Prior knowledge:
Elements: H1 4-12, H2 14-20, H3 27-33, E1 39-44, H4 50-64, E2 69-74, H5 77-93, E3 100-103, E4 107-110, E5 115-120, H6 123-126, E6 134-138, H7 145-151, E7 161-166, H8 173-181, E8 186-190, H9 200-210, H10 212-220, H11 233-241, H12 250-256
Parallel strand pairs: 1-7, 1-8, 2-5, 2-6, 6-7
Antiparallel strand pairs: 3-4, 4-5
Amino acid sequence: MVSLSEDLKLALDRAEFARMLGLIPDPWQCDLLRSSADRILINASRQSGKSTISAVAALHRALYYPGSLILCLAPALRQSQELFAKIAAFYRDSGRPVLPQAERKLSLELENGSRIITLPGSERTVRGFSGVDLLLLDEAARVDDDLFYATRPMLAVSGGTMMMLSTPYGKRGVFYYEWTQRERWQRFQITADQVPRISAQFLEEERRTLGSRWFEQEYMCVFGELEGAVFSHDTIERMFDTPYELLWDPQEAEMVE
Length: 257
């Protein structure tokens, strides 16, 4: 049991809550947990701890904000299960400070009215939810664009937070677009050489094994060109952006007709 003052500290500081769970957050993770932004993008290396820290944020919201609805989405059911397994483990490690009303394979309902629901990322599975307080999109670079557009209205009334976390997957999709084009988001970029748990020796081995393209995508947060593409993304963009001059006068053409 924690004291009232300690519990208040945990309620006010999610980084302290993570430490209570036995984690030692990296500096970027502390910054994220202490952020008040309601739109967050995490472009991070594999094994950087992005799913772990999002699980901490989800559990904290459920425990300390009664009646919260937290949705955790991923492209596939297996990924959803992995994310929820982290949340459930942290819940057990915390000593279940709020008693469960229902514990299921992919959801947790607490006596304070909060719910954590984990779903595979399909536009069809998420319709019907509203008033979402925290929306997590794991592996966001691989979710269908339709899912992103279907989830946004869920935050309209609640004013909830959306967090998209992913390793890049080419210059395509909403994650790439939001990362490169929108100003609304608070951005976190974490390359593998910034992760203290990943050794330089391992990264050098991965660079030699995977080759430049895959290594930069999986570990260095680079949005690469699509495999097999005839034209690069930048070339296609310039086709539409470059000014051009007509070789004839349209008015003269009309006169000839």
